[in-house]
Amino acid sequence: MSDSNQMSAHKKAVLAYSGGLDTSVILQVLKEQGYEVVAFIANVGQDEDFEKQAERARIIGAAEVFVEDLCREFVDDFIFPAIAGNAVYENRYLLGTALARPVIARRQVEIAERVGATAVAHGATGKGNDQVRFELGYAGLGPHLEVIAPWKDPEFLARFAGRTDLLNYAEEHGIPIEASSEKSYSMDENLMHKSYESGMLEDPSLAPKPEMFDLTRSAMDAPDTPARLEIEFVDARPVRVKDLDSGEEETDSLALFAMVNRIAGEHGVGRIDMVENRYVGIKSRGVYETPGGTLLHFALRDLEGITMDREVLALRDTLAPKFTQLIYNGYWFSPEMDFIRAAFDQAEKMVTGTVKVQLFKGGLQALGRKSPVSLYNEALSSMDIAGGYEQADAAGFIRIASLRLRGGRHG
Amino acid sequence: MSDSNQMSAHKKAVLAYSGGLDTSVILQVLKEQGYEVVAFIANVGQDEDFEKQAERARIIGAAEVFVEDLCREFVDDFIFPAIAGNAVYENRYLLGTALARPVIARRQVEIAERVGATAVAHGATGKGNDQVRFELGYAGLGPHLEVIAPWKDPEFLARFAGRTDLLNYAEEHGIPIEASSEKSYSMDENLMHKSYESGMLEDPSLAPKPEMFDLTRSAMDAPDTPARLEIEFVDARPVRVKDLDSGEEETDSLALFAMVNRIAGEHGVGRIDMVENRYVGIKSRGVYETPGGTLLHFALRDLEGITMDREVLALRDTLAPKFTQLIYNGYWFSPEMDFIRAAFDQAEKMVTGTVKVQLFKGGLQALGRKSPVSLYNEALSSMDIAGGYEQADAAGFIRIASLRLRGGRHG
Amino acid sequence: MSDSNQMSAHKKAVLAYSGGLDTSVILQVLKEQGYEVVAFIANVGQDEDFEKQAERARIIGAAEVFVEDLCREFVDDFIFPAIAGNAVYENRYLLGTALARPVIARRQVEIAERVGATAVAHGATGKGNDQVRFELGYAGLGPHLEVIAPWKDPEFLARFAGRTDLLNYAEEHGIPIEASSEKSYSMDENLMHKSYESGMLEDPSLAPKPEMFDLTRSAMDAPDTPARLEIEFVDARPVRVKDLDSGEEETDSLALFAMVNRIAGEHGVGRIDMVENRYVGIKSRGVYETPGGTLLHFALRDLEGITMDREVLALRDTLAPKFTQLIYNGYWFSPEMDFIRAAFDQAEKMVTGTVKVQLFKGGLQALGRKSPVSLYNEALSSMDIAGGYEQADAAGFIRIASLRLRGGRHG
Amino acid sequence: MSDSNQMSAHKKAVLAYSGGLDTSVILQVLKEQGYEVVAFIANVGQDEDFEKQAERARIIGAAEVFVEDLCREFVDDFIFPAIAGNAVYENRYLLGTALARPVIARRQVEIAERVGATAVAHGATGKGNDQVRFELGYAGLGPHLEVIAPWKDPEFLARFAGRTDLLNYAEEHGIPIEASSEKSYSMDENLMHKSYESGMLEDPSLAPKPEMFDLTRSAMDAPDTPARLEIEFVDARPVRVKDLDSGEEETDSLALFAMVNRIAGEHGVGRIDMVENRYVGIKSRGVYETPGGTLLHFALRDLEGITMDREVLALRDTLAPKFTQLIYNGYWFSPEMDFIRAAFDQAEKMVTGTVKVQLFKGGLQALGRKSPVSLYNEALSSMDIAGGYEQADAAGFIRIASLRLRGGRHG
To answer: Is A317 in the active site?
Structure first.
């Protein structure tokens, strides 16, 4: 709660600012309401002119502007752990947007503490998932901060019923707005993915237009020659990617993620089109491009085959829907996430090794995998030699395992 | 246990007979041991000359030969329920072999009852999964039957230490054997898939040779023009498949499954290469071609998006690893499977509707989905109109949902 | 939402009416707001004068009064399934209050339909679980109905800030109120239990006063002679209870539940004192008396020992926390509950047999159990005879089961 | 496998020796088979004369005898973690025997390494759970060791078909045997519990004889005055127990566990009589006395109420059946146990505080609990004051939570 007993001059809000119409209007409105506004521009890898955004915030009247490059922590602390934990929402969505929210919320709370702000604000809609993800993040990390979410505020909603109201208000207050034709869908972009929803996508019986896509070529336009990459993981984190044809190699997490994004995108990997369930109970149609993430998921699942114990894998996959749901719903900073992460960290130890993958026209194919800590035992696996296995043992194994099934009922 | 008090002439065994070297030798050995042998040849869609196999069994001395077409029940009772239940073993394997075992075991036990046999026999190795699947099937359905598994019998193993011993024995006893060069891997084929393992595949760091594949073209050889299919499901079972280009349409379960197999195979869909965990504790490398199954999985997951309740989907997916494990390990006929199936049947009700899918060079893409019982509400989903949703409600929702996260500790 | 375009005379609400101060005031306020109010008094086994309550509702101005005896459906449709499904919230609470809410909500919606009401109303607080349980019930069964919950209405909350405001309003409007000293805690009573919370119980470091309890004697005051009951279950539902000392026997569900309540209460069985987690995120201290339910839980778990398959039991218990959470949170009428119930119904088949239990000073002790469909096999279980078990089989079983553990890592 | 090519003098086995007839005979038989035998006598708190056992081993011809006091590590490393993890097998059994097996197996493997043994041996039956627990322990910790389990060896089984054969053999070889009438049931005792099974207990319809029990008084013979204990936990481990009447207090883990055992036993706490499912597929009747363990379970669950987050508790309890099954089946030293323990360790942090419990005639009652890190917020919990909670928020919460339930189907 804001401390309304203080003088209004002491109300200070850190606004997650995108440079767009909505958050520009919100910045101005917050000023009207007596807040000193700090604009926080988060660079999570989206293709934007951050300096231009910062300048706009200053023009509107931000007391201070922070442009923060969160790319590395986004990759290291959120994207890679999610891939390691097999986080796939409702069997398909790789959580590109969901993963970007906690990294933004975390920095926003840090800035609020640094500048002595009393409030944090965001411009996410009241119908979506992002509002929840931001606000649960604030709750977990800065529970004392006032949360300002104008798109849930009845007064704000009444005042700005449509885009025209926003535009008029911007004009009245001299807020600089980019002349842009309204898109027929909304987008969100970051290092991990680009997502598309609403507008013309709201009819799930229709395919998206080919020209909508941005990070990936269509399978039909992808090169006729496959790419072949070698990906090395240590403890379930990628540490090296090598293009087996060009010899290009990256070992830095950010650089290698950019590299897999570029190559996978070129080969048409990572488009998803689905109807998913939002946390607020609404079914929603989303289209996603997650080129590099799709590739890393594929490679890591493959490596688990030779490095992860069977029962650990089964337990991990039993918990994976819950892990995924926590990410999707916004509970990254929660005790239940800590609980699951502790187990997953344990599972991910020793998922170390190298996988070769072929990329071709949207498809992925494993070309081989090896590991210094492989649990695969070629002799034991062999159908030709015993390798330390007594086939006769299986007789007892099956008789004991089936005892329960054979046992009749005895009154 | 066999009723050894009876005269040996009364020992009667139903042998799952494949026409190959192993089961031919076993047939002869069983006769030697005083069994009257009934040969049971199961047609689960593999590409074989069943009449030739039957003839061979008669030559060796089978008292009776049953050639049983199990294709329809395989599709209806096993393949479709597995797809409906999202059964994907260790994130990739669609269980083609595992699903064929219970349908064979079931018929084998039925024949044993029909002919008054005291035993059932199979030729599966003691290192693999299939022995378990057969024998758990026998245990569940015919617990009174003696189980004969020569590849776990120390005496048999000592006698037939290598392939040469089998060949020599066959020659001695006039068992007709097809002149075949030994394959550099072993295969299993049925309606759902073709699998490859062992031999040169035992080194997981090497990719399989392109010429090994049979049911699917490689992505590189697939047509340059995509196929577009419309697939209709009722209660999570496919009931109609239509080729949107040629107009070809099938509604019979067997015919439609053949159709999706053919078209998906042509377009390179459904190859999997992985290291998996056998029930007997061995990691094993398997390569699979599951064209139609892969397509139906994809389409059904897509349809679940608009027809399945979020919480039901989450619960189903939490249990799916267990469901899958039961199939993989051979527990189709078990009380725990009945438990899970009861829940899954409930989940699958109303997963009814139509999905359009594009197939291209090994990849699948959803082109749209619709359902007469869709839970998707376009107005509610819309970002432009309220559709009965009050954005202000979300404020309370989030505050309550985060109360637990915000709550400090109070001593 | 109410159809506010209609004339106010057409607004008609069914109010869950308890005869107490809160719902009496609400009845009057609804009238003020132009609603025609139908009072619905639910008899779920609490010790009340329902006719007096009905009379009071009429005096205040209820257009119609329904006094509904829900005891039998409460026992048959809610209490017994919950016990069968091992529903124990946070390891202790047997859900007495949570189970009564859906049976009330269901009838309330039925009455709303019968009388053509547009709204349903309840007097539960905005901090508790019951509001959620009522309103999720309304949502599942009567989604078109307006929900009136004054204790969440800011205007109502402002008008009635304390008990004095309610009493003054009652006096002003001639609402008849029982002269009662305010209790130092709040209570809820029904067939299954009596619960106590708030007031002096809000300090969890203090034990409740002995005189608070009503349905159970304290262990110290319980008889010095134990009671011995024989309880028969069919498909996990109790069908007969016999007092082995007095010979008293009941077979009707309602009568036998009253009988176990009486005898268990007399012997001090079923007191629970705990801090639990409410759905709205608040930790709350609750004290409960659930005599008969505690006894039936104990007896049924015991019977499962000889009648339920091991793996089914393990799966059931893995899902039991979710089943319990759904009941506690109010999701009885939901698709996820249908999913779980389908599986549990399957598990509960054949949990048939008889258990003898001794009750003494708050404790329960099994004296023996038997079943016509027992899975217990005395010969197999025996340590003295084989009973069809080959000990040597266990060698193979263990070697295979431990293969995974023994396997070193192989690079 | 033993390296049988080596000279017999090099075969050296560490035998888990109990001083009883079975392991005495096994010791002699191993010698006959050319093993140098090291006798390992594990003190896990059972009431035995260990020196007399050691003397007997020497007389029979053990090359070396180790008497090892494992009590402290049994309590610290196995009993307390199991209680912390809510390990209750099939809703009742507290795993007293199962927990003692890994601590014994661990030391046995350590001794084998210390003395350069090639084998480990035990005398557990082939029908029970203990053989599996021992051998999975050996597999996890000493996979290279030969495992000798005579009661699964067909030759041994044929030679010693009954107790008379063992007695005759003992007499022939001058093995000193205690003159003991054969018990009508078998027992196992350790610090945590005493268990009874087989013999006259094999009929589950009959109650055990009152005189069988040893660690607990019957409720009827328990004192008429309750005991009241205060138990302090830090991170879910008991660190202090105080008798609130006598003032007796213990803080050492071993001493406090002895104290709760003594007091709980005196007050009749901890008797369990059940039919459970063994890992080898047999249903078995077991009767247990676990006085102190029962008390600590009760107290710790109570403390979790004020200190453990709701969602963590729910996740922990969802995994508890698996955790319990791993202990029961013998998988303490396994990667899947490490996975679960990592999560549980996380959950157990901050389960710190004090619980007062009353013990009376077999029953337990909480008298209050408090914690320096309590999550319970009295103001928030209060029904009289807001405590930072806005009741109106619950309206939005419920509307959003029920959106999914209200949503009709839209074609």
So the answer is: no
In the predicted model, is pLDDT for residue D185 greater than 80? yes
User: What are the tokens at C370?
Assistant: 């038997």
**Interchain CB contacts (distance < 8 Å): B and C:** 64
Chain C residue at shortest CA distance from D197: C383
Adjacent-strand bridge partners of C12? C36
Q: Tell which residue, C120, C122, C118, has the closest CA to residue C130.
A: C122
Q: In this structure, how many other beta carbons lie within 10 angstroms of the beta carbon of residue B209?
A: 11
- Do residues A366 and A357 lie in contact, with contact meaning Cβ atoms separated by under 8 Å? yes
Beta bridge partners of B241: B231, B250
Confidence tier at B410 by pLDDT (50, 70, 90): very low
> Span B20-34, mean pLDDT?
97
Whether D33 and chain C come into contact, CB under 8 Å, resolves to no
User: Residue C181 pLDDT > 90, yes or no?
Assistant: no
* Distance in angstroms (rounded) separating the CA atoms of residues B298 and A41: 39
Q: Please, are residues C71 and C47 in contact by the beta-carbon 8 Å criterion?
A: no
> Does the CA dihedral A90-A94-A95-A97 come out positive or negative?
negative
- C392 at A interface, C-beta within 8 A: yes
The neighbouring-strand residues paired with A241 are: A231, A250
Instruction: Using DSSP, state whether B306 is helix, strand or coil.
Output: helix
> Which neighbouring-strand residues pair with C39?
C15, C65
For residue A113, the one-letter residue type is E
Residue D64: exposure state from Cβ atoms within 10 A (0-12, 13-18, ≥19): middle
CB distance D282 to A403 below 8 Å: yes
> What is the model's pTM?
0.96
Q: Which residues of A touch D282 (CB under 8 A)?
A: 403
In chain A, the percentage of residues whose pLDDT exceeds 70 is 96
On the question of pLDDT at B387 being above 90, the answer is: no
For domain A11-172, the CATH architecture is 3-Layer(aba) Sandwich (3.40)
What residue has token string 């009852």?
Answer: B113
- The pLDDT tens digits of the residues spanning C80-96 come to 999 999 999 999 999 99
Find all residues with CB under 8 Å of C201, minimum gap 6, and list them: C185, C208, C285, C286, C287
For D112-244, strand residue ranges (E) read 119-121, 146-148, 186-189, 194-197, 227-234, 237-243
Which residues in chain B have Cβ-Cβ distances shorter than 8 Å to A395? 126, 149, 152-153
For chain C, what percentages of helix, strand and coil (3-state, to nearest 5) are there? 45, 20, 35
Residue D408: what pLDDT?
Answer: 53
D155 pLDDT above the threshold of 70: yes
Q: Give the range among A74-88, C373-387, D53-67, D341-355 with minimum mean pLDDT.
A: C373-387
Find the mean pLDDT for residues C312-330.
98
Nearest residue of D to residue C304, measured between CA atoms: D275
Neighbours of A, requiring at least 3 CB pairs below 8 Å, are B, C, D
**Bridge-based pairing state of the strands A249-250 and B12-16:** unpaired
Residue C335 contacts B, CB cutoff 8 Å: yes
**Which among B277, B309, B342 has CB closest to C346?**
B342
- Cα distance between residue C402 and residue B281, in whole Å: 8
Active site includes A165?
A: no
Angle between helix axes D291-307 and D253-266 (nearest 10 degrees) is: 110
Any idea where the domains of chain D sit in the sequence? 11-172, 186-370
Give the integer Cα–Cα distance in Å for D219 and D216: 9
Assigned CATH for B186-370: 3.90.1260.10
The complex's ipTM works out to 0.95
Contact B381, B387 (CB under 8 A): yes
- The one-character DSSP state at B76 is I
Please tell me the distance from the alpha carbon of residue D58 to that of residue D53, in angstroms, as a whole number: 9
What percentage of chain B has pLDDT greater than the value 90?
Answer: 91
Radius of gyration over alpha carbons of chain D, in Å?
Answer: 25
Instruction: Identify each DSSP E strand in C104-176 by its residue range.
Output: 119-121, 146-148
